[in-house]
Amino acid sequence: MQDTIPKILQEQRLFFSTHKTKEIAFRKKTLLALYKAIIAKEDAICEALYKDFKKPRFETLGTETQIVLAELKLTIRKLGHWAKPEKVSPVWINFPSSDWIYREPYGAVLVIAPWNYPFQLALTPLIGAIAAGNTVVLKPSEVTTNTSKIIAEIISSVFPPQHAHVIQGGVEISQALLAQRWDYIFFTGSTRVGQIIYEQASKHLTPVTLELGGKSPCIVDETANLKLASKRIAWGKFLNAGQTCVAPDYVLVHKKVKSALIEALKKSITNAYGKESELSPDLARVVNAAHHKRLLGMLKGEKILFGGTHNSTDNFLAPTLVDEPTKNSQLMQEEIFGPILPIISYETEDDLNHFIMGTDKPLAAYIFTNSRTFRKKILQTYSFGGGAINDTVIQYANKDLPFGGVGKSGIGAYHGKNSFEVFSHLKAIVKKGTWIDIPVRYAPYRVPLWLAKHIKRLF
Ligand code: NAD
Question: Mutate which of 116, 294, 335 to test ligand 1's pocket (most atoms within 8 Å of Cβ)?
């Protein structure tokens, strides 16, 4: 497989040089074909995700296929408008001119995807890259093999390999791909691997988008509606068995309402998954034995308030609440990425600072409060990728909101028009008139220097 990589890339470069991918009608036609292919395979996609980690069908429809279809629908509808040259105001110093931004594709794009939303996080960047007129090599995750296989089938049924191609495999394949020179790399995955990708890309000065992870806090103050908060926190945390990059990683709750929130969370979890969550058809599994073992290791020595039961035959771990892990515990040092929710109490804003400020900027943060002042304070104080007030995860659903991290949680943002922009170089063009040529700028310079000090007014 490694040997074929340079050949595929060369074929993609050749195809790109024909300028076919620059035709808007061609891009739309291809995206429409992809839309139809996904609809035709939607049941098979659900089955693949069920085989990979028992992802419930409703969750696959809601967080994988339908999100991708919505992205495709929007892109097909708006592409003509997005791709049009954009006129901006000219400046007097260039008089007479009209000034434009042209969006042009970079060329050959590499997309590397993770396993946690294995369909959606592979397809959504691909849609943006194709819409912007690039060719794509996509490497889905080696962890969710059934989904990767169906992605490869869909892509090869819609695209010739010189336009878009799936290469399956693990770290070795990923590194063989990174050894090539790409015109853009879009990576979703862990911060650790993100650093490797960035380093490899820098060798060719290849621009990158890095969609990474982190520890996303969920703050609940004493004014919050606890019943609603517990429902929305439990949903966002245990969706996909907690394997969501924007899931609340841990809860910081005001001391006064801590026990009430814990009771409400226990109720919400039981309402959602029943008394024996192992029997619930609505709870996904941990993706593999290694992650299952890692999560159980995190629980060692911790005070479990609820859940904690597990079964290694199918990597089941019950939705679990943990009481006050210390800041130095493994639970609080690493991104959890599983169905474990630490509950930590705070009393003062200093306590909040202690937990949030010392950590890297997270991908998301959530604030449950009825106090405007508190909400404003948190939004002003902390830096994070994005988030929600009085809910979790839902910022992901709006295509007009850029999705991405900051600091160690990522570089760049996508979704909707942002995806098209990510994969487009903005070419700035000034169209200068020829009917007049104002001589002021040419040497020998005759404008008095006191007057030259006012040139700024002409910009
Ligand atoms: P990962 O970083 O282990 O793997 C992601 C991809 O990188 C896979 O395709 C894998 O084959 C490849 N890879 C792994 N090691 C590599 C190496 N040494 N060199 C080159 N390529 C390598 O991530 P994961 O375990 O698949 O996903 C979980 C992580 O992804 C979490 O940290 C999560 O927060 C993050 N994530 C972020 C987003 C986002 O949108 N910001 C979305 C989903 C997941």
Answer: 116
